[in-house]
Amino acid sequence: MATRKKTAEQQEVAVEEKLKMLYKLQSYLSEIDRIKTLRGELPLEVADLDDEIAGLNTRIHNFELEIQSLKEATTQQQKKIAESKAKIEKYNNQLDNVRNSKEYDHLSKEIEFETLEIELAEKHIREYAELIKNTEEQIAAAKEQLKEKSIDLEQKKKELDDIVSETKAQEEKIREKAKKAEAGVDPRLLAAFKRIRKNARNGLGIVPIQRGACGGCFNKIPPQKQMDIKLGKKIIVCEYCGRIMIDPEMAGIEENGKN
After folding, report:
1. What single-letter DSSP state applies at residue 26?
2. Which of 45, 83, 118, 165 is the most exposed place for a label (fewest CB within 10 A)?
3. pTM surpassing 0.85?
4. Domains (ranges, CATH) in the chain?
């Protein structure tokens, strides 16, 4: 009987110690969250700017390939014009030696055809020139954007580096403490805590009771459940938000929230 009683007491102490260790871990993680908040949206802004700059570089590269293709097409059309002119010259020379009207009509049609080919090629060249001009304007606009984004990125990186350098040592110390605290928490309880914390808006996985309510969602807790939480005999979660709850005294804080 005495052995059973001792085992029950050990179990109660074990649960209470688990809750205390878990709350200590939460305090370290909340401090890390606070440091991250100090950095604000800068890491995301830096990542977004990196993506935008990569996109602009890709766009500029594609524009340059397009211009290269248009220039090659222009060269092909110029070759066609040269070939057609050479044919027209040849046909004109042959006109001087025609023997009948049939040959004359045939050569005349060939000259007419090649003349139309020249006009079509010149039309294409004008179109390509317009496209090249428009694409060059788009490249200039993209390069201007790239310049602005690059300057903005450098400024954001500097701001972030300054904040990180100020808080890095502090964060590393807290992370080390959190790691040690984590090692002292039951693996299953730790997994549940991490899952709750991930889904919680403010990152709180365990909260103290505040004025008879859950310290996470502020819904009222029935008196009997408050008593069970105070006794610390078992892990109790809020029926509304799912957070683990701990008695303020057990957590080392007073009801008014002061240490």
Report:
1. H
2. 165
3. no
4. 2-39+186-251 (no CATH), 42-172 (1.10.287.1490)
